[in-house]
Design a protein that fits this description.
The protein has about 130 residues and is α+β, with helices and mostly antiparallel strands. Helices cover about 40% and strands about 20% of the residues. The two termini are about 40 Å apart.
C-alpha cells in the first residue's frame, strides 16, 4: 500500500470508511462532523488513505515461463536462453510492463483497484450543538 495525500472518514465505527476522499484532514473532518450530526453519531474517525500500489518485478517469473516454453519446443537447444539478462535490462522490461499495464487499466477502469486502507486514524468526539 502507498500513502496518498488523501483523507477519508468513518462515522462511529473505524471499520466503515465511506470511500470518499478529501484533499485535507480538515476537509474530511468538516464533512464527517456535518454527516455525524445528521446521523446522530457520537464519534467520527479520520485518517489518511493508502492505496494499493502493485510492484512490477516480474521478469524473473516471465523469463522462467518463457524458458519452459522454449524447452518444450526446442529441448536442449534452448538451454541458456535468457540466462544472462542484466539487472538493468530486467528493470527496463519491468518498467515497460508497468507502463503497459497502467495504460491497459486506464482503458479499462472497471478493473482498477477499488480498495484502500487507512493509516493514522484518529477518533474524534462529535460536538453537540445546543
Amino acid at each position: 500500500m502507498k500513502k496518498t495525500n488523501k483523507w477519508t472518514y468513518a462515522l462511529g465505527d473505524e471499520e466503515n470508511y465511506n470511500g470518499i476522499f478529501f484533499d485535507s484532514k480538515e476537509d474530511a473532518l468538516d464533512e464527517a462532523m456535518q454527516e455525524a450530526k445528521l446521523e446522530d453519531v457520537s464519534t467520527v474517525w479520520v485518517g489518511q488513505v493508502e492505496q494499493f500500489q502493485p510492484v512490477f518485478a516480474i521478469t524473473d517469473e516471465l523469463f522462467y515461463q518463457l524458458q519452459e516454453q522454449a524447452y518444450e519446443e526446442a529441448d536442449d537447444y534452448s538451454i541458456g536462453w535468457l540466462d544472462n539478462v542484466t539487472k538493468d535490462d530486467q528493470d527496463e522490461l519491468d518498467e515497460a510492463i508497468k507502463t503497459c499495464f497502467i495504460d491497459w487499466l486506464n482503458a479499462h477502469p472497471e478493473y482498477k483497484p477499488n480498495f484502500f486502507t487507512v493509516t493514522g486514524a484518529e477518533c474524534i468526539e462529535v460536538q453537540k450543538e445546543r
